[in-house]
Write a structure and sequence with these properties.
Helix content is 73%, strand content 3%. The protein is mainly alpha-helical.
Length: 230
């Protein structure tokens, strides 16, 4: 495995296993821990400079999110979805994003719009520097902020559960520079629609945005399959 910096000491009342889970989640999303990779507790504990107790709790949390699964005779591994699973999950996610946007336009405050606009400027700066990791972290904050502004706890719970399984794919969908640029333009349109409280427009943009992500990811699956056959 690649060298990983030790985890920072968590601030109270932050629980150590949530910090460990956040670090592992990032490693999975960014592909350092690849789909299907075995999660060896001894190696991970040494890499992250933690004991096995918080590590095991972190793995339980990631298992509940669908990022980790336990296989017979292999133990914990990074969850691996096939193309059909991914297509189905993106279909649901697009509907959830669209509903989040439409409800947010009806319920969001001016202060929340300003916060999302500020995040958009920050995201654009990371895009200009081609810093994909930083870009994606802010990008995810924008989507979460729109979802939270919908003020529907059932929608949020469902959104978080499905989105956890798709984060790695959403991250990788920006690997193509042209597709990444197009996604940024779609985000600009999102902010405009949100500020105008145009619910139907924002819903349409978000659904189209997720469908574009899906198409890129499925193309990557097809390309990977062709390379494997070759």
């Amino acid at each position: 495995m690649a060298d990983i910096l030790p985890l920072p000491t968590p601030r109270l009342p932050e629980v150590l296993h949530t910090t460990v889970a956040a670090r592992l989640r990032t490693l999975i999303v960014e592909g350092t821990l690849a789909p299907g990779a075995k999660l060896n507790e001894r190696e991970l504990a040494a890499m992250l400079k933690v004991s096995r107790t918080p590590l095991r709790e972190a793995l339980k949390l990631l298992t509940s999110e669908g990022l980790v699964e336990h296989l017979p005779n292999r133990g914990a591994v990074v969850a691996q979805l096939d193309a059909n699973d991914v297509a189905a999950a993106f279909e649901v996610m697009a509907a959830l994003e669209g509903l989040s946007g439409e409800l947010a336009c009806a319920r969001i405050s001016d202060a929340e719009v300003d916060e999302i606009r500020a995040l958009q400027f920050e995201m654009l700066a990371h895009h200009a520097r081609k810093d994909l990791s930083a870009y994606y972290r802010v990008n995810a904050k924008i989507h979460r902020a729109i979802n939270r502004a919908a003020r529907n706890h059932v929608l949020t719970e469902t959104y978080d559960r499905i989105n956890a399984r798709l984060q790695a794919f959403r991250f990788r969908s920006n690997a193509d520079g042209e597709k990444w640029d197009a996604a940024v333009r779609e985000h600009d349109a999102m902010v405009v629609a949100l500020a105008a409280r145009d619910g139907p427009r924002l819903r349409a943009i978000l659904i189209e945005h997720l469908n574009h992500k899906r198409d890129v990811v499925l193309a990557q699956f097809r390309a990977g399959g062709a390379q494997a056959q070759a």
